[in-house]
Amino acid sequence: MESGQGVASTAALLGEPARATMLWTLLDGRARPAGELAFAANISAQSASNHLARLLEAGLLSVETQGRHRYYRLAGPHVASALESLAALAPRPAPRRLPASRGTPESLRQARTCYDHLAGELSVALLRALQEQGLLRLRDKDYLLTAEGEAAFARFGLDLAALRATRRRFACACLDWSEREFHLGGALGAGLLQELLRRRWLLRNPGSRVLQLTPAGRAGLRDGFRLAV
What we know:
It is a single chain. The chain is of the alpha+beta class. It has two domains: 2-75, Winged helix-like DNA-binding domain superfamily/Winged helix DNA-binding domain (Arc Repressor Mutant, subunit A, Orthogonal Bundle), CATH 1.10.10; 80-225, no CATH class. It is 49% helix and 18% strand. The chain has helices spanning 2-14, 17-25, 34-41, 45-57, 77-89, 106-110, 121-132, 147-156, 160-164, 186-198, 215-225, and strands spanning 32-33, 61-66, 69-74, 112-114, 117-119, 136-139, 142-145, 172-175, 182-185, 202-204, 211-213. Strand 8 (172-175) and strand 9 form a beta hairpin. Helix 2 packs across helix 3 (34-41) and helix 3 packs across helix 4. The protein starts with a helix and ends with a helix.
């Protein structure tokens, strides 16, 4: 009973369009001031303040204070994962009204950030390749690294011991809202994205969640993970 009431309470919070918009704006993992979130949700500053207070109380947001300014961000990757999963459950528009990208901008659909890990078509294809090569094995909603996977990720430059020492799930299945398949989340997913960015196989698009796959990235993913992109 208590669990059901908690779900209903959280669903009611997310069911308000302005609050949902502010949370979605924070899905890239960055912290933003109340004024920017109010602008994104098209509401007044006072209304935004009330909504943000409720989201903070519910544990969906955290706040950082710098001088007189307060910056809000998602409380953690678990909130981002829940938002992506909810978006994946949203009904699609009628087929006659859908563009070729199935209602999602093509650039956003191809590759984007989901909080601190990779999402979109590229992420789904990469996870599928990792599983097909026997590097990852799904157990419930978590992924286990095989011996081959341990060696492959270590060669790729990931510090697996450090990733396992973080206070979060190591490797988990995160439902991708545009593809409606799983991509790789958790500490391993975050570490993988950081390495892809460090190598400049992926580039950030300033001011958005979009990621650009570079020619070096195409070649590297093909040679390192047998991924044809």
